[in-house]
Amino acid sequence: MIHSKEIRVIDEDKNQIGILPVSEALSLAKEKGLDLVEIAPQASPPVCRIMDYGKYLYELHKKAQEARKHQKQIQVKEIKFRPKISIHDYNFKVRHVQRFLEEGNKVKITVMLRGREKSKPELADKILKRVLEDVKDLGQQDGNVRIQPWAVSTFLSALKTGGKDAKTKNAPRSEKEVQSNSEEKSPSQ
Prior knowledge:
By secondary structure, this protein is of the alpha/beta class. It folds into two domains: 6-68, Ubiquitin-like (UB roll), CATH 3.10.20; 76-158, Translation initiation factor 3 (IF-3), C-terminal domain (Translation Initiation Factor IF3, 2-Layer Sandwich), CATH 3.30.110.10. It has six helices and eight strands, in the order E-E-H-E-E-H-E-H-E-H-E-E-H-H. Strands 2-1-4-3 form a four-stranded mixed β-sheet. The protein has a four-stranded mixed β-sheet with strand order 5-6-8-7.
């Protein structure tokens, strides 16, 4: 579907053939058993290449897949609190929030309300403010607080992104360190 009368043609070895009429370029491509693919339609004249179109699509797909592989995927993690949460449970969940933010993920903080708690959303707001205060060095509020009849929630995003690499999480240990661990375990047998 080339709309121009004349095109700049490049052969399968990426050598420039020259400016040809479309019909002549198509016949040249059919002689070689390949396709004529327009690769730069905005150029003047448009640039077309003689190539295997299926192979070209495969290469484009592989390049896109490779680019996606090197991108960091940011996940949204959710932590749920209750207005009458115990101190231990609160600290445990805040540590999870801190770990998620350190990894570069977004965190959704939800304070669940049940029964008579629904008539007092300020209890949930108090918990949210406390969590925000406890993780202010790692993350910040992203967007507004969302109030629903059964819950109050907000999102936190990490101040610095990048996350931990798999290599740093599971760093290889030195041979001496591995041997010292095995020596400690052997006398107890």
